[in-house]
Amino acid sequence: MSEAYIIDAVRTAVGKRGGSLAEVHSADLGGHVLAAVVRRAGVDPAAVDDVILGCTDTLGSQAGDIARTAWLVAGLPETVPGVTVDRQCGSSQQALHFAAQAVMSGTQDLVVAGGVQNMSAVPISAAMLVGQQYGFSTPFAESPGWRTRYGDQEISQFRSAEMIAERWDIPRDRMEEFALASHERAHAATAEGRFSREIEPLVLDDGSAFATDECPRRTSLEKMAGLEPLAPGGRITAGVASQICDGAGAVLVASERAVAEHGLRPRARVHHLTVRGDDPVWMLTGPIAATEHALARAGMSIDEIDLVECNEAFASVVLAWMAEIGAGHEKVNVNGGAIALGHPIGATGVRLMTTLLGELERSGGRYGLQVMCEGGGQANVTIIERL
């Protein structure tokens, strides 16, 4: 089986809801990073075998197979196809998995994987709600088959985050401390230029270059303590949740043959890929079992992992994962996470990978692990080895 190598990884800076990227068409947003990653790698874009992009709520500006349209609006060769993947929050991480698997199988040699999401233009869960607006079918949790299996209960990431906080006995103030650390780490990483290499500046209509993440806040424990919980009497507030935002990212994956033929210099090797399912009612607990499975299959322990990117959908998700896996915060989300940097759903997987790769190189670490909770009670795990 062929190895799969990550040649390069780029992303846009993340725009806050209603911010700098709000008016950028999703296809142009995706096209920007697709063009950038092949240009940075120095490969002929016509040599790319496929383009795989993650995106959810594929309506309006995100409809019509955005992987294909984003490639075309970027002025890239018409001979290269594209396909769009929806595994909810893990969509672009799954795109990377599909790209790596295509290369490992020997059926393709150069694949671009990535993700795009403009949550300002297409609101979260729009695809689930639009049917009701036009009198179409109801959301999945209202289907007779679903109700037979899981009953008539709320299926919600917010409820799941609350349930996790209760089950793992994570107090609100502990989550707020974690959230504050996310913001502080993101500000420090920005000030130190840790994101500079991974961000491809995007020229906006006013001629300015958008190159700095907009979401990190100057907040405090006192400010977060004043926020109302999302559920009456609950522990989860907006302050300990990921931010709605806009962004895109892309990685170029190559086979050993492509590396030799195109004179490429890989930055990392894909060491292991896992995707697992879990209880869809609990939903966000998926990363725990998926990480245990991935480490077992890879023959590794968490102590052998130098850096971790565990998506901060909610503080409770990461804190429960850390407790079960035995990972210390000193190597988890060291440059901040989605609470500070935002969670452009279809693009977050690749955003995490670009940051993980860059930080492994900066710190000299060898192995990095990325894991995300996903709608439906799923989780992807990717382990990479820096080269």
UniProtKB/TrEMBL annotation:
The record's listing under Gene3D superfamilies reads: 3.40.47.10
Domain Thiolase C-terminal, by residue range, is: 265-386
Q: Where is the Thiolase N-terminal domain?
A: 5-256
Keyword set, alphabetical order: Acyltransferase, Transferase
Q: Does the keyword Zinc apply?
A: no
The cross-references to NCBIfam families, in alphabetical order and at most eight, read: AcCoA-C-Actrans, PRK07801.1
Report the sequence similarity comment from the record. Answer: Belongs to the thiolase-like superfamily. Thiolase family.
Name recorded for this polypeptide: Acetyl-CoA C-acetyltransferase
Which source organism does the UniProt entry give? Prauserella halophila
Q: What broad taxonomic lineage does this protein's source fall under?
A: Bacteria, Bacillati, Actinomycetota, Actinomycetes, Pseudonocardiales
